[in-house]
Amino acid sequence: MPELPEAETIARGLDSVLPGRVIAGVTVLRYDVVKGSAGGFADALRGRQFRSVGRRGKNVVFTFDGESRLVINLGMTGRILSGPGPGPARLATHPAVHFHLADGGCVTYDDIRRFGLLTFIPRAQWRAWSLRLGPEPLARSFTAMVLRKTLSRSRAPIRSLLLDQRKVAGVGNIYAVEALWFARIHPATPANVIGAGAVARLHRSVRKVLRRAIHAGGTTLRNYRNAEGDVGGFSRALHAYGRADKPCFRCRTPIERIVFGGRSAFFCPQCQAASP
DNA sequence: CATACGTCCTGCCAGC
DNA sequence: TGCTGGCAGGACGTAT
Question: What percent of chain A has pLDDT over 70?
Answer without folding.
Answer: 92
